[in-house]
Specification:
This protein is α/β, with parallel strands linked by helices. It has helices spanning 17-28, 40-52, 67-81, 104-132, 153-173, 198-207, 214-225; strands at 8-12, 32-37, 56-61, 86-89, 135-140, 177-184, 235-238. The longest helix is centred in the middle third of the chain and has 29 residues, at 104-132. Belongs to the short-chain dehydrogenases/reductases (SDR) family.
């Protein structure tokens, strides 16, 4: 019997990339997926695809920078299914640039989505999980949470923050709630499309030549979720075999 079957899983950033792949995989294994993203038309298409293949999926438009919207999608999951087993805080942005380019609006966007969005996911799900005395919070970071590279100082800072928040949460919540950090290496996604700086965009095109499919990260998330309740997978770093640093 799959440990995923029947679980209610809220996933942010589900309109593409890792979020989309995770929703498809978990639904195929019997989870009820509750999907959130800003591009609601993509969510509608994805939900229809999952349901056509026999899966269970609902969705709601979501901007993770707004706490009321994050609380709203958790309430949707609870109303529809009675509880929430897992939240995957996946939404993120990556508009890289050298600091001297002073792209302050882009810095603020990364802080808002990558850090505040994760905190909002925790704030929305944790009270319910404490009341249930069960739950699993999965935060998606990056290998940028372990080392800083040129043009990525602010992005890496946000991912270092996610790593610190996740570890602090794990130590605080006790044994009833599991906490997992997933840190992908270079992975196929739309993140690089948000890079407006020419130098950073050129560097990223070279860097992404050996990218993992998003399904590889989805499998890592599924691995953490499918463990028995007394097993907490704290941290997974998943890189392409060709990516040495």
């Amino acid at each position: 019997m799959s440990e995923i079957k029947g679980k209610v899983v809220v996933i942010t950033g589900t309109s593409s990339g890792i979020g989309e792949a995770t929703a498809k995989l978990l639904a195929s294994r019997g989870a009820h997926v509750v999907m959130g993203a800003r591009r609601v038309e993509r969510l509608e298409t994805l939900a229809s695809l999952i349901e056509a293949e026999g899966g269970s999926a609902i969705y709601q438009q979501l901007d993770v920078t707004h706490i009321d919207q994050m609380q709203g999608i958790v309430r949707l999951a609870q109303r529809r299914f009675g509880h929430v087993d897992v939240i995957v805080n996946n939404a993120g942005v990556m508009p890289l640039s050298p600091l001297e380019a002073l792209k302050i609006d882009e810095w603020n966007r990364m802080i808002d989505v990558n850090i505040r969005g994760v905190l909002h996911g925790i704030a929305a799900a944790l009270p319910l999980m404490k009341e249930q005395q069960s739950g699993h919070i999965v935060n998606v970071a990056s290998i940028g949470a372990y080392a800083v590279t040129p043009t990525a100082a602010v992005y890496c800072a946000t991912k270092y923050a996610v790593r610190a928040i996740t570890e602090g949460l794990r130590q605080e919540v006790g044994s009833d709630i599991r906490v997992t950090l997933i840190s992908p290496g270079v992975t196929e996604s739309e993140l690089a499309e948000s890079i407006s700086d020419d130098e950073a965009r050129e560097l990223m095109q070279t860097y992404r030549r050996d990218a993992l499919p998003a399904s590889a990260i989805a499998r890592a998330i599924a691995y953490a979720i499918e463990q028995p309740a007394d097993v907490d997978v704290n941290e997974l770093v998943v890189r392409p075999a060709a990516q040495l640093t």
